[in-house]
Structures are given as C-alpha cells and as structure tokens.
C-alpha cells in the first residue's frame, strides 16, 4: 500500500513537472516571438535611416545627417546610396579630401558630373582653408593662389555642368578677393553682372571688399546693403559679419554718423562670452572682439583718440597675449604723439608672435618714419612688400612712402590791408619752398624764394630773397642750414639761417632758429637799411593731443644798435572732442623789451600782452582721401605798452583746407587783428592762401 502510494505520488509529481515544462516552453516561444516583433518594430531599415539623413541635410543639420548615414554604413557597408550620401556630407562639412579618397574607391566609380561636383566642393573648401593663418607668413598667398588655380580649371571646363561652373565663378570671385587680387575680383564681378547673375550674399561681400581695396566705398556700400537684405542677422559663428564692412564703407564715404551708429550697435549687441548648453565655462566671442576693434579704429579715425586709447588699453589688459590688439594700441599711441611708447608696445607685440608678418612690418615702418628713421622705415616696407606685395594696405603704404620721400613743394601767400605801423596800408608776403627727394635717407636739398612788400606812408618797401639750403634728418632730430642772398636794393646782405628740432622724449621737445638777416626784423626797418641777427628758442611740453604748453624766448640784435628781447608762453587744453570735431581753449602771455627807442620802426621800451584763445575745427566733407575741413580761431585779451594806457586786443581767423587727394591740398583763410599801438587802436585784415604738394 505504501509502495503504491509512493508510485502514485511520483507519477503525480512527474505530471506536474511535465505540465510546468510545457508551459515554460510555450512562454519562452511567446516571449521570443514578441521580442523579435519588438526588435523588428524598433530597428529601422536602411531606407528609413537614409530618409532621416536626407531630411536632416535639407534642414541644414549636416552633422546629424552624417550620424544617420554612418549608422547605415555600419550595418550595410555596401549600400551605394549611403556611400554617396556619406561622400556628399563629408565634402559639405569640410572633409573634402576624405570625401575624395572614399570616392576613388567606389565601385562603380562616380559619374563625370558627380566628380566635377566633388572637385568643386574641394576647391570651395580650399578658399575657406586659406582664410586661416598661413603656414609660412613670408608667403601668405600660397594657399589662396592654389585655390584660385583649382577653381579656375573648373570654371573654364566646358564639360562641367552649368551649375557647377557658375558656382566655380562665384567661388573664384571670393578667392581672388581673399588673395588680395582685387582688380581681378572686380573683373569677375563685372562679367557676372553682365551675364545677369544675381550674386549670393557671400559673393557680394567679397565684391564689396574688393571695392574697398580699390577705394570705391560708394559702390561697396550698395553691395554690403544688398547682402544684408538677402541674409540678415544672425550670422554663423565662423562667418564675417558684413555690417562691420558696411560701417567701414560708410566712414570712407563720409557718412560718419551712420558708420559710428552701426558699429556702436554691433558692440552693444554682441555678448562678450559665448556659453554652450550643458557645458561649464564660456569662451570669448571672437565677433565681439572684431566689433570692438573696428569700433575703436573708426572712433580713432574720427579724432576721438583718448577714448580709443583707454578702450584698447583695457582690452590689452584683459587679453595680454593678443598681438593684434597690442599693435592697434601702438598705432593709437603714435596718433596721440607718443612714438617711443608706440615702439615699445610693438616690441611687446613681437614677443607674442613667432613670425613678423606684413602688417607688423607696416606698423614698424610708420613708427620709424614718424621719428625720421627713414632707413629703418624703408627696410620695414621692403620686408612688407616681399611678404604681401598684393595687399591693398601694403600698396597704400608704399604710395604714401613714395610721396613722403619724394619731391615736396610748399607755397604760401598773404595779402594784408589796414593801418599797422609795421605793414602800412597794404602788404603782401609770398614764400615758396621746393625740397628734393630724400638722399641716402638723411638729406634733402632745398630751393627757397621769399618776397614781401608793404605800402608805408613814406613809400614802398620790399624784402626779396632766394637761395639754397640743406635739410638733415636723424632719429628724433631734424636740422637745416640755408643761405638766401638779397634780391632787393634795401639791404644787400645774405641771410644765413640754421636751426634744429629735437624730440627729447614723447612729451618734451626743443627747437631753435638763428638768422643773420632775419625775417622777424620789421619791414619798416628794411626801408631804412636796417636788418639784424635774430635768434629764438622754444621748449614744448605736450602730454597728448589734449594738453600742451610752450615757452619761447627770442633775442634780435638790429644793425642800428637796438637789442630786442622777448618771450611768449602759451597753454592749450582740449575742451571738447567729438566725431570729426574738436574745440581747444588756451591762454597766451607774452612780453618784450627794446634797448633803444626813437627808431623808425615800432619798438616800445617794453610791452606786455595776455589773451584767452580758442580753436574750433571740424570736417565738412570726406570721401576716401578727399578731405574738406574748416578752422576758426580767436583770441581776446589786453595789451600794455610803457607810457601808454592799456587796451583791448582781439584777433580772429576763419580758414578752410581742401585735400583733393593724398599728397595735394589747398588752403585759404581770412583774419582780422585789432590792437593798440602807441595808445591808438589799429586794425589789419589778411587774406592768406596756401598749397602743398608731396607727402
């Protein structure tokens, strides 16, 4: 009984186990089937992935599209459509060389049209690669020239598809401009316009930049504005903001307010730091730096030197390793009258760079030229020309240097009317100076002519001289020696003259002039055969363009035994600075004594004067190098003469200067002087004209 019970129990146990095993198998099969179904639903096929990739590409998300494409190739490496899309995406993302390598291994190979498209992509990316810092700073055009050659072959290939050739023409315009071949770029632009092609924004920006290099800002403005209309802000981080170019074009075209307003807004709108989502920290916004740098430069060019200097100094303190900012700071220091400080700043910038590029050499040349180191300036310009002879900036600098070291001609003429004791009822003075080109970087030969005359109550008087001289230059020094024989019959004495100017430091300078028959002797004395030796010396302290002070002493020994001694001190302070506008106020004090009285010319025993002065000047019109400015000066004070009552003295002058182009300018002005002589007020009106040709 017990045995049967055990057998029955065992049978029941086996039955239960069998049922459980059967159930487990069924469940397992069901789960496997469900899993396969889920897997089949969650894993798309190659067509679905490629569809997603093409959609991302159409939306401009090429990195995401490439990820989908790579997933297809990881599973189906021989998928032809995925291979083609992978090559296209790599080429568009800048991996044109890698794309070309993959295309070479395709089987079957690409069609001729597809190969042309791939080559066009590669050539287009060559233009972008050439934008970077050149591998060899002494040959900055190597990459650009290679890109131009490759693009030119595609543009000239009659077998290439029309759309590929058109794209190559547009890329060629960009490459030519980028390689400082502005004239060729504009020729390409003209051809495209003649064919009725509507340029895309990037090509218009390149054409506008070429226009600026050729000094055609009005045409550049139209191109920049159309580019911005087609493609308004925001711009991709790697793209140049065309509004910076437009602001510069506005400025060169004389639209200063629009220029500064635009670049000021760019500075205000651009954040200083860029932060990526999910990434700790931030990186500097390069476009903000570009906007700041351009804004500072334009405000500096408009005459606001102090604010430009302060902003650049702050930026250099924030980014001490930025060589470009250091160089811009040096040029601002030079503009403020600090050439030694500018040279030191350039030395600091040199330590931040491995190689001295053309821009650095141009800055060096400008600083050296400002202190009369003409040999050093020539060497720096030669180096810049070797490095980047096609650069518009280099061409402009070489043209300016040719003007500076070439012939120089100056002409001034004054006509006066009034009742002055020294000049009579009417007087005139003309001076002309012709200077030879620089000789051995140190010398110029001068030819001089001077003619002055006056209609005195006792008759006509003239002082006419002409002669030759030599002018010399050394770093921080200039000096001259000249001889001017007399050409009139009043005083037949040759006037020997000599003088120097020494820039002791960025703040202090000293100058002196001596003459054996000086022009400071009154014309009235000339009529009576009286001349004299004159000597004057002056020391000036100049903190910057804003503040200066000067003290001058002079001593004249007349041939009639009279010795005149005098002094003059003045202080000038900038009271207001605005774009192309400045107003200076100052104080001027002077005095003189004469050892003898009762001479036929005005020579009080002693006299004193003091006056408050002012100078207002601004730009009336500007277009590229053409410039038209005006200047108004005034002085009002008192004059004291021994044995006579003191009286009010006043003077005013209004003048204009017109620069037709770099190196040629004309000036004119009219002035009025009112001052007591021997207790009686006398007035004089003077019309002056001038001309300068040369630097």
From TrEMBL:
Taxonomic source organism: Dyella choica
**One term of GO molecular function:** poly-beta-1,6-N-acetyl-D-glucosamine transmembrane transporter activity
Supply the name of the protein: Poly-beta-1,6 N-acetyl-D-glucosamine export porin PgaA
User: Is this entry keyworded Cell wall biogenesis/degradation?
Assistant: no
Gene3D superfamilies, A to Z: Tetratricopeptide repeat domain (1.25.40.10)
Q: Which UniProt keywords apply?
A: Signal
Residues covered by the PgaA membrane beta barrel domain: 415-693
Has keyword Signal?
Answer: yes
